[in-house]
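Form 7-S
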Amino acid sequence: MLQKKKAVLVDGVVLNGPIMDSKAGEKFVEEACNIIMEEVIQKAGDVTEKVCEWRAPETLKQILDLEMRDAGESHQKLLQLCRDVIQYSVKTSHPRFFNQLYAGIDYYSLVARFITEALNPSHAFWNNSFFCTLPPSNFCFQCYRGGRNCAGIWERKQSGLAE
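Output:
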C-alpha cells in the first residue's frame, strides 16, 4: 500500500509537490490554446485582418497592465492579457507580412515549438536541448554528406579555391 508523503514546507512553500492545482493549470492551458487557435492560427490567412495594430510604447504601457503583483493574477486576467498581447503584436504569419526569410505560417514548425515548450516549461532548465540540437545538426550533416551544394557553401573545390 502506498503511503502519502507529508508535504515539505519551507517558508510556506511546498517543495515536494505541485505548486498549483493541476486541473486548474490544465484548464488555463486549454483556454489559452483556444485563444491562440482563434486569434492567431485561424486568422493567419485572413487578409482582412491587420498585420499590426500599432500603438506607441507609452500607449501600450497604459493599455497593458504588466505590473508584477505578489499575489499573482487570476486566470481570467491572464487570459485577457494573452488576448491583448496578441492584438497589439505584429502578426508575422499574416499573408501581407513580407520578410526575406519567410512568409505565412508554418504549421509543422509551430507544433514542434509547442512540443519543445511543453517538454521544457521552465525557463531555468535546458533538459531537452540535446534532442533539439539533433534535427539541425542532422540537416547540416545531410547537406554536407549528400548534396554538398545545398547553399553553395561547399562549392569551393569547383571554384578553384583551396579548402
